[in-house]
Design brief:
The complex is a heterodimer. Chain A is of the alpha/beta class. Helices cover about 45% and strands about 20% of the residues of chain A. Chain A has 7 helices and 10 strands. By secondary structure, chain B is an alpha/beta fold. In chain B, helix 5 runs antiparallel to helix 6, helix 6 packs antiparallel against helix 9 and helix 7 crosses helix 8. The longest helix of chain B has 22 residues. Chain B is globular and about 55 Å long. The chains are: A alpha/beta, B alpha/beta. Chains A and B meet through helix 2, strand 4, helix 3 and helix 4 of A and helix 5, helix 6 and helix 9 of B.
């Protein structure tokens, strides 16, 4: 029997900035700004269902994303929602504008030993931050296949495949259904909040 | 009255000539003599402002005599020096300033940095001007304006988070035809706050023991990314600026207390570390981004 898949919600950071911070400033700089944006994102997440879901944090309409803001938004969100006592069961995806944002996101993730899935639009999804080569290979394989059922894990990823998928799921970089089926987060990101 | 002579050509290379003349323990009238000045970069301008502020806080009422050359005075005015200097110096009745409109040839006028909204203002302001200079003059890709803005944002936040006092930022591009055969963009940031040593002291001095001092503090922040905040995410601003400036083959130096540390590219003769300099409060950051040649 198939399990219900996690819902997907998209949060437009540009809209948050326009509505709550500075209508004419598409620039995310300074820590207080980052903290305010993160608080607004968390407010949205509190309104979502308690069941697991994927949240796409969309930076498309943001021009400048400095390291301080990337740290306050991306890294601190991940740290908080990695914990066992997280307020919601959220898996995060980040949509960046090419290397312009990707560089800031990558660096803050590495600083914290974190990793995240990032949507580069036409360039597809990438795994940014601190991951081992094996984790990266497993993630890429799943990203291509979009889902791997329990019977296909060894074929797709080798004998250590199950361990790698479990590790990626613990790091919230893939979603695993209770029956062991692994789903790429990119395959779960569709709707808008 | 003590007279502090500003050299004819005054930039990051001879800024120590100014600091050596500053005596923080000696009150009394001081004149900053800019009459011979013919060339000055943002480091020179902010250095004069910082030194004037130090003199003022030592009990002087610092005065300034403007350059003899009207073009230099006009340039200083376009860079916002008059406005900033008005907060520090007495100009005297016979001031040579002429009110001029802000020119479009300035990358970033001298801007006070006191609070986070100032950082936003700096980033917003530079967006419209930096693009053309970075792309057309320095040959950087179109996306460089964003990375340039990130650098500015992080260096300005360094003032707010670590100096505990206001500071200034300024940027300008120049044609270093004779010196380097290339155009450059220069970013200068200066404050007269507590400096790196005092900022890091409570959190980190004990682990360095007797080695603790201006050099160690600069190395800790510059090379190791240490910060006074226990948060893991802190301290990466300088590290990331170093990486980006390095990608552009640029120079980055930070002077604080009696030392200066730098990432020096092959075109610069500056040493990576200088110590035993004349003590000066706060921190002064210099970034030079050269035109791409390939």
């Amino acid at each position: 029997m198939s399990q219900p898949r996690p819902a997907s919600v998209s949060i437009d950071v540009g809209a948050i900035v326009a509505r709550t911070l500075a209508p004419l400033r598409p620039n995310l700089v300074t820590r207080p700004t980052g903290r305010a944006v993160r608080a607004a994102i968390e407010e949205r997440l509190r309104g979502a269902a308690r069941a697991p879901f994927v949240s796409l944090i969309d930076f498309t309409r943001i021009r400048v994303l400095d390291f301080s803001c990337a740290d306050e938004i991306v890294a601190k969100l991940l740290v908080r929602y990695m914990k066992a006592d997280r307020p919601r069961d959220v898996f995060f995806l980040f949509r960046a504008v090419g290397e312009v944002h990707g560089q800031s996101v990558e660096q803050v993730l590495r600083r914290h030993g974190l990793a995240a899935v990032c949507d580069y639009a036409r360039d597809g999804f990438r795994l940014l931050g601190s991951v081992s080569e094996r984790e990266r290979t497993a993630w890429q394989t799943l990203e291509v296949r979009r889902r791997i059922g329990p019977a296909g894990v060894a074929d797709a990823l080798g004998t250590r495949g199950d361990t790698l998928l479990r590790r990626l799921a613990e790091r919230r970089l893939v979603f695993r259904e209770p029956n062991g089926t692994a789903l790429a987060l990119s395959a779960l990101s569709t709707s808008h909040m | 009255m003590r007279v502090i002579e500003i050299p004819r050509s005054f930039d990051y290379r001879n800024i120590e000539a100014l600091y050596r003349q500053i005596d923080m323990d000696r009150p009394g009238p001081v004149l900053f003599d800019l009459r011979r000045l013919r060339w000055v970069d943002p480091n020179g301008m902010l250095g004069i402002l910082a030194a004037g502020k130090v003199a003022a806080e030592a009990g002087s009422a610092p005065r300034i005599s403007l350059p003899d050359e009207p073009e230099i005075t006009s340039y200083l005015d376009r860079m916002g020096f008059r406005e900033a200097a008005g907060e520090v110096f007495e100009f005297g009745a016979a001031s040579k300033w002429r009110r001029r409109a802000r020119a479009s040839d300035v990358l970033l006028e001298i801007t006070p940095v006191t609070r986070n909204s100032d950082v936003h203002q700096v980033v917003d302001r530079v967006q419209s001007r930096a693009g053309a200079i970075l792309s057309n003059t320095l040959g950087y890709p179109a996306s460089a304006v964003v990375q340039f803005s990130v650098i500015l944002s992080e260096v300005c936040q360094n003032i707010i988070e670590h100096a505990g006092r206001p500071g200034w930022v300024a940027a300008q591009s120049y044609n270093w035809k004779q010196r380097l055969g290339r155009h450059v963009a220069i970013i200068s940031v200066a404050d007269i706050g507590r400096g790196f040593r005092a900022s890091l002291e409570d959190e980190h001095a004990s682990r360095f023991g007797e080695r603790w001092g201006d050099v160690t503090a600069l190395e800790a922040a510059f090379l190791m990314g240490l910060t006074r905040f226990p948060d893991t995410g802190r301290g990466q601003g300088i590290q990331q600026i170093r990486k980006q400036v390095g990608r552009w083959n640029g120079l980055l130096s930070i002077r604080s207390g009696s030392a200066r540390i730098a990432d020096t590219p092959d075109w610069s003769s500056k040493p990576p570390l200088e110590e035993g300099l004349r003590p000066f409060p706060g921190a002064q950051i210099n970034i030079i981004l050269p035109e791409r040649t390939e």
